[in-house]
Amino acid sequence: MPSVLPGALVAELFILGLMYGLLYGVLAMGLTIVFGVMKVVNVAHGDFVIIGSYLSYWAFVLAGINPILSLLLTIPFGFLLGALTYLGLIRRVQNSPELMSLFLTFGISTLIGGLLLFFYSPTQRAVPVALGSIEYGSLSIPVNISIAAAYAIAVAIALRFFFYRTYWGKAVRAVIDNRTSAILVGINPDMVSLKSFGIGIAIASSVGSIVMLLQSISPLSGPDFTLISFVIVVLGGLGNPPGALVGGVVLGVVESLSSLYVNAAMTPAIGFIIMVIVLILRPQGIMGSRG
Amino acid sequence: MSVQGIDVYYGETKVLHDLSLKVENAELVALLGSNGAGKTTTLRTLSGLLRPAKGEIKFDSHSISELSANRIAGLGISMVPEGRGLFTTMTVRENLEMGAFAKRARREMKKTLDEVYSLFPILKDRQNQLAGSLSGGEQQMLAIGRALMSKPKLIMLDEPSLGLAPIVISKVFDALKALKENKMTIVLVEQNIDGALRIADRGYLLENGRLALEGNPTEIRNNEMVRQFYLGL
Question: What is the Cα–Cα distance from A192 to B70, expressed in whole angstroms?
């Protein structure tokens, strides 16, 4: 451990953590929207990320399409896949005890992982795009991470606009707030659930495109993304989308700065340590309200 | 609206027994009874949240017993649920906007919003506040206002006086009276029998999920059992 921390290093780690945190936070927003509307914990959330990653990977390999451009593919594809998954599967367990939906989405996760393994083998895949770094004085920020953060901010703004400025977005908030009252004013909860699941999966699979800029993936990388989203959702407060963004940033920054003190292999544990601390001190989450 | 011989269950427990009632247009009907008599269950059934195991509910001469609650709301039956059921994390204005979700109401949202604001001016002053931050009386006004936003043909209220100070209760009842004078059809569930009978055209008294008594306010007031057990006279 260095006795005096160089300021530039700390600043750089802080910025990197913030940027990663934004991306994680937006991914977790997808999970928390689905939970808020349907009370369904989507254990397959991360596997839909990997579907998006593979889509981007093959778009690059077969057609030379940059993963950033393949967002135009993964966003609508994710929405459609989510809507179909809702119609075909999730809808059946929506009003059952929560354990049923947990089993179902766990099954979907296993299915996606298995199918990807079957078709694409367990080989790690990466897209060789070198984007370099931006230098600010003594700071060096990789471009790919900056793009990830920019995409996350764009999604957060789009979601904010949808939820607070559009009538349908307000209807989704109404269902999250009080499902019975929402039905009593005439909102069709099925339609809201369909759109929410579509949005949740569109977020997941589009984040998959961005992930291809940052790291390599394999068919079984999905649960890692589910786990991190889950930690963030608990941090920010269940069913609270802005909370998820805050939770993501907190996790990203703390994880990143912790690399100054602990071995990199230990960083995944950091998230769980923060989660346990938050659960003890503030069980409703950072932004959650009691009740 | 007419209800013909409905039985309603919560799981295995039968809570409404062969209940029949009728609400004419522009009439204010009070549904009275003590705790657990089945008043809320009746409203939840009429609004489609519960389904009758037997019997039929008709509205505008169509059967609605098989329709989902959101479709029934779309037909113009609006409910102010027990405990008001506001969207507490949304603003006053957003709550009202959501009230106009039904297609035919959404087109006239702006106009209806002005009408509701003139009925309850305090809501306009508070339109950008979160519904959860309002006082009890304001919340009840918002709940009624939200129900009115759907341009309902029939509005059902579950215990609007519950938990309110007497002066606020009389304001709420005044508002209901004004709605009735504007030809609104109203079903009012109340434990506050005296207050409800003051503005009602007719009343039904429920006991243990069965109809115990029906009649106009004078008849109900003068009933020996009502005097003794409900009015304490």
Answer: 12
